[in-house]
Amino acid sequence: MVFSNERFLQNFLENEVKTGMLVVDGCAGNGQKTRFLASHVGSEGMVLSFHEEREEANKTAASLFMAGLQDRVTVENGRLSADALRQELGRLTKVDLLLLDYSQSTAVDRHTINDECESAWPFLKDGGQLILALPVTDNLSSIQRSVVTDFEGPFSAACFTAKDGATLLFEKESSKEETV
Question: Domain of life of the organism in this record (predicted)?
């Protein structure tokens, strides 16, 4: 058996995403993971799907409609940001899981990743997970160090690396006080 980052990520999501969860697909691309997440959160859950390209957002919305999953997903045209999350979630709602999948990106921009992680971290509930899927890159440890410097409060971290990429996992631990 050959280890693959995509396989690891798929297995992780299958085991972690539960009915009723609120999940953010922060770099939805073609919407494949958005559809998967929508099918796993059930009718009681919700997925927010962010797309940089309007065409990709429209394709994802059409695909969700054809699959009967449109009521579980809000498709956003635009990058993940604190303002966009605040607009969709409000100040008090917290997210169970946040996926940022850069694995298909040809050039990984550490600053974009850092900005999106920093924007999203305050919206994770205690015990919530931030997942970064990255392509093969020489600066993996640099990206990991850069991301974690902006996290407030305690967290746990893990990394899975294979020939086709890496997944960084962060779990927000309980803190005394959270503000958004």
Answer: Bacteria
